[in-house]
Amino acid sequence: MISDSDRVTAIELINEARASGSRLKPACDELNISVRTYERWIKEGEVKRDQRPLVKRPTPKNKLTKEERDEIIKTVNSPEYADLAPSQIVPKLADEGRYIASESTIYKILKEEKMNAHRGRSSIPVKREPPTHIATSPNQVWTWDITWLNAVIKGQYYKLYLIIDMFSRLIVGHEVWEDEKAEHAEHLIRKATLAQGTAGRPLVLHSDNGSPMKAATFQATLEKLGVQSSFSRPRVSNDNPYSEALFKTMKYRPKYPFNGFKSLEDARKWVDKFVNWYNKTHLHSGIKFLTPFQRHYGLDQEIMKKRNETYAIARAKHPERWSKNTRNWSLPEYVSLNPISEEEANNILQETN
Fold it and tell me: Which of 215, 243, 292, 320 is a Cys-bridge partner for 182, taking CB atoms 3.0 to 4.6 Å apart?
């Protein structure tokens, strides 16, 4: 059913079109109405618009009076209650035998008066943005974490310390121990930086908020090595995605000993084999199906060039089999810790250059 307001609008549009020289039928056809409908509307006379928004409505019986509203504002701003939230004010007033309004009403009034600012001496809650780091080449950003490996004995675990290069996904350092200690982490980071020759070059090491990661001795070691530490947001599980993804790949390997490792030596041998496979054999989907070793040590460009040439030859041989371009084998210019827009990435790159 067409509303009164739509009917009036249609009549006005048709009249305007006719005044500009249009014939009646084409004008009616444009609005999907018949000439007879238009004539009936005209015959019925001017249609009144919806008057409901203009009706003066009675004041609700439960509405606060101006005096009551002023009392609420005066109370919440008094020295006794100025630092308290309405959820604290209402019970205190009840203990004094007073009731001025419900919590929701007080919150509503504070919002209307633009007085709903943070109350009290505690810090204003701040939404923490996810940590963002960008790598444009190897050995700029590393991420590390510790995962537990099951032992044959129920309740016993071995701890795998593992560092991965964010740009190439290469595992640059790993060790397995029976416990979690900052000393093990210190030994591992020293060994990794020495093997990669990162001394004197900027390097970020990102991790979660575990005790070995934040230990004072470990942080002192990073400072001596010139490594900048970075941490995930508290209680956020996906701020260290590269390490977490690697652990998942490892524990979903067909030959992973789901029944547990027999000994620490057994765990170390298995992890050594996995790291060698992951670095030198595994074609990583995140780096266009290169091995981390190829990406890390600059073999990627030649490999991608050969892939593009192979596809170009195949397309030239059978062009009818290609409706669009060949597969895109180009490599990303940068890798970010958390997803960011291209504009944000460019801003960060300009700041670091």
Answer: 215
Span 280-293, pLDDT tens digits: 999 999 999 999 99
Hey, what's the torsion of the CAs at 148, 149, 152, 153, to 10 degrees?
A: -10
Residues 6+ apart with CB under 8 A from 31: 10, 13, 14
Q: pTM of the entire structure?
A: 0.63
pLDDT tens string 147-161: 999 999 999 999 999
Per-residue pLDDT band at 238 (split at 50, 70, 90): low
Strand partners, 142: 165, 205
Q: How far is CA 293 from CA 95, 245, 248, in A?
A: 70, 18, 20
Q: Which residues contact 88 (CB under 8 A, 6 or more apart)?
A: 81
Q: What distance in Å separates the CA atoms of residue 308 and residue 312, rounded to the nearest whole number?
A: 6
With H, G, I as helix, E, B as strand and everything else as coil, classify residue 161: strand
